[in-house]
Amino acid sequence: SPIMEELITFHDHAFMAMSLISLLVLYALLSTLTTKLTNTNITDAQEMETIWTILPAIILILIALPSLRILYLTDEVNDPSFTIKSIGHQWYWTYEYTDYGGLIFNSYMLPPLFLNPGDLRLLEVDNRVVLPIEAPVRMMITSQDVLHSWTIPTLGLKTDAVPGRLNQTVFTA
Question: 104 and 52, same structural domain?
């Protein structure tokens, strides 16, 4: 999904900044430990202290701005094609396609005896949710009894299902 591509790009951006900072600190430590020459004038260098203060602030801003952009992109609601209501129960999920005459079905996990070779244990279900491609879908997620987590990792989605609260997420597959 486009959101997952943005998350991967942000991860690469933040990892590159973190790697460069780590290498700079490692170089400074190694050069301090291995050199015999010391400069006593650096203890009173106000310019160096100013740089040490401003540079981390700039780096934090360069990491925070893309992060905030992605945060707002994930909360954006753009006229979804249809809505699916998902209700978490103790051992199953109930899905309701509200825009299509209230189509309701339960999705139970398959017991290990019914798994085919290559199926993933605790992830295979008897009735899967069918989602359209390249159409915005709104998921309304809640729970009936305990906390649940509704997630599709490849789309970059994870929304908690909380009893008494209706959470919403919009995505495009």
Answer: no
Angstrom distance (rounded) from CA 108 to CA 125: 5
For residue 151, what pLDDT is reported? Answer: 87
Burial of 4 (0-12, 13-18, 19+ CB in 10 A): middle
C-alpha 169/C-alpha 77 separation (Å) is 8
Among residues 71, 135, 142, the alpha carbon closest in space to that of 150 is found at: 142
The structural domain count of the chain equals 2
pLDDT tens figures, 13-41: 899 989 988 998 898 888 877 877 666 55
Are 70 and 88 in a shared domain? no
Q: How many CA atoms lie within 13 A of 88 on its CB side?
A: 22
